[in-house]
Amino acid sequence: MSASPPAAHPAPGRMSHREVLQSLTGLLMGMFVAILAGTVVSTSLPVIVADLHGDQTSYTWVITATLLATTISTPIWGKLADLLNRKLLLQLALAVFVLSSAVAGFSQDTTMLITMRVFQGLGGGGMAALSQIVMADIISPRERGRYMGLFGAVMALGTVGGPLAGGFITDAIDWRWNFFIALPFAVAAVILIQRTLHLPRFEPRKVRIDYAGIVLLSAGVSLLLIWVSLGGNTFAWASAATAWMVGGAVAALAAFVVVELKVPEPLISLKLFRNATFTLSVIASISVGVSMFGTAVFLAQYMQLARGANATQSGLMTIPMMAGLLVISTIAGALISKHGKWKGFVVTGSVLQAVGLFLLGTIHYDTNFVLVSLYMFLLGAGVGLVMQNLVLVVQNAVPQRELGVASSAVTFFRSLGGTAGMAALGALLAARVPELFAERSGQLQAALASLGTEGARIAQQFAGGTLPVVHELPEPVRGIIEGIYGDAVAQVFTVAAPLALATFLAAVFLPNLPLSTKTRHERVTEEKSAVGATAALASTPAVEPEAAVEQGTGLEDALLVRPQPMEEKPEGRRSGGGGEDG
């Protein structure tokens, strides 16, 4: 895409194209580090969990722990971004993320690994929230598409290159080196952010952190997600543990709502839910989270456990989904920037998301891989069209004073959907696999018996609940195991598919607001001017038109000024139905 030349005298708060590119350098490197550190282990997790003697529940929790921490921390980072130095917060989040990744490389058991994944999630929540907020600081909603190609290239390098590098490192060296690979890039990212990221200055605000809201939201969401993760396995759904977990979660979240209605700087402003764009985007984001996080994780298991791929091959086999997400979202971003039309892309994406999930629910271990690739591409394209555009339309529709909270709230609910979906679908998979083992126990016993001593060793491994390394199993057993996991993973996609219909309905009813051509700085200035003008008019004594003429105001000015407070109301318009652009 060709860039228009910078204006000779750019407006206050407006950066030239060259300045934007310079400021994005460090941000792009930081995003690359976060993506790389997260994806480099994705295809290696079955090997890692098996080497640490973990079971299916451990595998699920290695993923869920990161998502849980990301979910809880995202709104906290977003609120801090409205109050504190966003550049410093970005560097802090990056440091937490990468250092915890490095420590994870020394894990001796799944408990230590899960603990470090929690810290990864804390840093990852900051990167996810702050990157969106910083983009809004320097790029207007309408112009955002011009730069999506850069973000698409970085995401492609991280999401495709990470699993490939991780698979190669796991197969050729040792899986522990996957956690160290991002360190040199992290050092470069911190330096680049310090030197190149220049953000416009906003008027300082008194910092009032909602500590009670942080504690209550963390407790409520954690209890709820832990219950979803462990229910049906560690304890029965109808049990005392369920009663106190669900009851505690409901009580904590109810108290959170009460606190948010009273504190001066709420963690998540509940007034935002009066905005139709915000509310519908939240609903859509929840199911997008299930599609994005759940399918990526379970597709890796499908490739390795149902198709017998090793870590490197698994990375290559999931490229179609990433290609669909990155290529289609980049093209859509350019078209949105050019024409200013976004709703058709979001609705189309929601349809593709649902179709992709339904089709993936039909796969088996021996389904033609061309068909599997097509299904993955459709799903990736759908997620790519919906995910980033939901954040874009929310940033376009809310008051800019609350942009950080609103942006992180959408990301929070997407992570919440992904975490809850991951936990629930993981529990479903963990329950379904033993059932299929029991159904095919006769075939499996016969296959194991034919292998003699080797078969006895494999049977002992299965009895311990450890995930098998399928590509290392001998053929009679391998085919049965692939069939079991192929059918189990397909059922996961079948259950997830109806959730995509919620995204479609929300997308259809989203208010089709035009995208603003102004940066956050310009819109903040405009909003302050509008509020100040309204306040000045409200404090001015009403005068008769004749008196206005006598005072030198002019009859025409007096008649135009007096009705203005009734028409302006920028806050009310935005909160009522999405509002108008600044």
Describe this protein's structure.
This protein is mainly α. Helix content is 74%, strand content 0%. Helix 1 runs antiparallel to helix 7 and helix 4 packs antiparallel against helix 5 (110-138). The longest helix is centred in the last third of the chain and has 37 residues, at 403-439. It is globular and about 90 Å long. The protein starts with 16 loop residues before the first helix and ends in a 5-residue tail after the last helix. Residues 1-13 and 544-582 have low confidence and may be disordered.
Poorly predicted tracts of residues: 1-13, 544-582
Strand content: under 5%
The radius of gyration computed from the alpha-carbon positions, rounded to a whole number of angstroms, is 26 Å
Can you identify the CATH class of the largest domain?
Answer: Mainly Alpha
Overall 3D shape? globular
Would you list the SSEs in sequence order as H and E?
A: HHHHHHHHHHHHHHHHHHHHHHHH
Overall structural class, as computed from helix and strand content, comes to mainly alpha
From the 3D coordinates, which CATH architecture of the largest domain would you assign?
Answer: Up-down Bundle
Please report the distance between the alpha carbons of the first and last residues.
Answer: 27 Å
Helix content: over 70%
